[in-house]
Amino acid sequence: MNKVPITQSAIPAVELPVPNMEVGADSPDYVDATFDACERLAKTHYENFSIGSRLLPSHLRKHFYSIYAFSRGVDDLGDQADGDRMALIDLWDQQLEKCYLYDGKEPPTHPYFVALAQTIHEFDIPVEPFKRLIEANRKDQSITRHETFEDVLDYCSYSADPVGHLVLYLSRIRDPKLHELANKTCTGLQLANFWQDVGVDIEIGRIYIPLEDLKRFEVSEEQIIN
Predict the structure, then answer these.
(1) pTM of the shown model
(2) Domain ranges in the chain?
(3) What CA dihedral angle connects 184, 172, 102 and 80, to 10 degrees?
(4) How remote is the C-alpha of 102 from its chain's centroid?
(5) Fewer CB atoms < 10 Å away: N or C end of the chain?
(6) Close Cβ partners of 194 (under 8 Å, ≥ 6 residues apart)
(7) What is the pLDDT averaged over residues 207-223?
(8) Residue 17: in which H helix or E strand, if any?
(9) pLDDT tens digits for 31-47?
């Protein structure tokens, strides 16, 4: 990946990673190329995602990839980025806001957001689910333990549930009952992921098993680490 420096007066100068692009931003094929970049990201991360995406109607796939690229991108910043992660997450947030607020003079510049802006406007997707995913990664920078199961569920409402909403919006489904069912599904999947990835999470300093449960079953953090 290349890196493009982006400087804001309120935050330090940092660099958002951007994918290698086959054409420049002035090319008439650039928007299509940004969707292609989102697809490449999706297909190089997790095999089960690639398989699952084949079940989508073909006309939705590129938009699904743009949402995935947003979500994967902010997760990677929160989990793996070098340097000031909060500043990088803030820049990610600013690119998102450009998708909603620009008047044609200051559109998003990051390739993933160029694609995402098309998806947002075509399907009239509200900003809140994207904002909650960003906030989940902000929380991860300061909260590495959760006292109760309710605390974990609250975290899931930021880290997981918004994904279900985004998929429903992509399908033009706005029924509140279905969105609530999506919350339950996404929370369940997130919890399964937490229990599956205990070893992975501890490597980046996080434990998602509630501390009250560790205490109740007399399990120490040292036992988890070792």
Answers:
(1) 0.89
(2) 29-126, 143-226
(3) 40
(4) 22
(5) C
(6) 152, 201, 208, 209
(7) 96
(8) strand 11-18
(9) 999 999 999 999 887 65
